[in-house]
From TrEMBL:
Domain of life: Eukaryota
Residues that span the membrane, as ranges: 32-53
GO cellular component, as recorded: membrane
Pfam families: Branch
MF terms in GO: glycosyltransferase activity
Protein's name in the database: Glycosyl transferase, family 14
Keywords: Glycoprotein, Glycosyltransferase, Membrane, Transferase, Transmembrane, Transmembrane helix
Membrane topology category: Single-pass type II membrane protein
Localization per Swiss-Prot or TrEMBL: Membrane
UniProt entry tagged with the keyword Transferase: yes
Amino acid sequence: MLGKSMKNKEQQCKGAGSYAKLLGAQLDLLNFFGHALVFGMGLLIGVTLTFFVNKLSLINFQIQQLSLLSNTLQPTLLSSTAISSNISLFISNNQTKNNGARNVSSLPKKINQTKPSSSMIRVTRIGLREFLRPPMMMHDMTDEELLWRASMVPMINNVPFKHTPKVAFMFLTKGAVLLAPLWERFFKGNEGLYSIYVHSHPSFNGTVPETSVFHGRNIPSQEVRWGENSMIEAERRLLANALVDFSNQRFVLVSESCIPLFNFSTIYWYLMNSNETFVEAYDLPGEVGRGRYKPKMMPLIRVSQWRKGSQWFQIDRDLALQIVSDHQYFPVFNKYCKPNCYSDEHYLPTMVSIEYWKRNSNRTLTWVDWSKGGPHPSRYYRTDVTVQFLNKLRYGTSCVYNGRTTNMCHLFARKFTPHALDRLLRFAPKIMQFN
Ligand SMILES: *[C@@H]1O[C@H](CO)[C@@H](O)[C@H](O)[C@H]1NC(C)=O
Ligand SMILES: *[C@@H]1O[C@H](CO)[C@@H](O)[C@H](O)[C@H]1NC(C)=O
Ligand SMILES: *[C@@H]1O[C@H](CO)[C@@H](O)[C@H](O)[C@H]1NC(C)=O
Ligand SMILES: *[C@@H]1O[C@H](CO)[C@@H](O)[C@H](O)[C@H]1NC(C)=O
Ligand SMILES: *[C@@H]1O[C@H](CO)[C@@H](O)[C@H](O)[C@H]1NC(C)=O
Ligand SMILES: *[C@@H]1O[C@H](CO)[C@@H](O)[C@H](O)[C@H]1NC(C)=O
Ligand SMILES: *[C@@H]1O[C@H](CO)[C@@H](O)[C@H](O)[C@H]1NC(C)=O
Ligand SMILES: *[C@@H]1O[C@H](CO)[C@@H](O)[C@H](O)[C@H]1NC(C)=O
């Protein structure tokens, strides 16, 4: 009895099943046409949308249309068009910002619906030249944005365009570049082989004549305090601004009291041909060396790895990239290298000695005299500047360059006061054979 009724039920189910199958097939067919129709519409909408990426209101309108359609259309298709509309929104939103000069209200009010306008083509076409052009000096990137942009490295080493390697001279100053007239003479006639970046106090409002090589070379800056981490931030900011220009291959940090000791062609040749970086690093027992180490820096930095050195470096692009993208050492210094630690004298020497010592010379190319003691090196005034003195700085020591011993160990020197400028301008061009 029970078995029979079950069998009946089974048959009933079977019958219902085959009926359902038939119905299903018809439904499938219907569904197929429905899908195709819907797909075509989606495609049409997608294409229409991408044509009007610049016009927000238009996109909004289309999205409204989409949401109307969404009541009748299948969700799978909708989401694919929704993605394209979101991408369009994303582009149009941030294109106006990135174009700087362009301004939202100056965009065409009505866009011709039959074909994209020529102005839109100009906006969206990004050739290599546009890509390689460095942003304006006074850009509006935050430090975080700038460091990220600067950290980019091409994976293909062969450069498919002509470029002349440049030396980036990065001036870290309080105000004006005090010895600018000497540097002007130094740079003259070497256009295209160098770039200049100036980081001065943000409140500095001095002006530079338009004819000067320093004109318009100030980068967006922040306040810098001697011996504090803000100094490292400024160095990284300078490096990042310089890295954004792909043709910068060597990076030289100079202060307002630095002078060049050779002519441009000699310095350019020395830097470009060196297979080493010049970050001074030495281990110094005692209070002003290892005494500044903080045990909390363990385990990243052990006291035996702690190094000291001058902040005035000369490095290549590879090391510059490592410095702007360092997310390991700088946070530790930022946290633990507090007063009486002087990160400007320890951060780079220590990090480079741990990670990049293989190609580092452990010396700097900037001459300075600490022999008189105290927290600041000797300063040079008018009467200090003589031919003998300058030649002593140029050839007075011995060192190794590309594996060979040489007596040309310093290309720059500090600290020179503006009082020394007169005599520097009188002697230097002759001794150093400026153009
Ligand atoms: C599109 O953007 C809206 C709002 O910003 C968001 O809710 C939606 O999930 C996005 N759609 C897709 C597919 O990303
Ligand atoms: C687009 O730029 C604005 C600032 O104009 C920013 O707030 C927003 O996050 C950017 N959108 C994306 C997706 O990066
Ligand atoms: C944007 O363009 C409008 C009209 O062309 C102009 O009046 C306005 O000053 C511009 N705004 C900026 C910030 O350039
Ligand atoms: C759109 O472009 C066509 C052909 O270029 C032109 O004849 C028409 O006047 C334009 N319409 C508008 C609204 O600009
Ligand atoms: C420049 O800055 C100084 C103070 O730093 C101020 O006294 C002076 O008025 C400023 N000059 C201009 C032109 O803004
Ligand atoms: C530089 O210092 C590092 C670490 O102190 C050392 O390993 C390296 O041999 C030194 N390089 C030169 C060229 O002296
Ligand atoms: C630099 O070149 C010299 C000479 O070819 C060589 O002796 C030296 O080992 C090289 N240094 C580095 C760090 O490659
Ligand atoms: C630069 O100085 C060197 C000597 O140090 C000299 O041989 C060379 O000719 C000078 N270059 C120019 C362009 O004057």
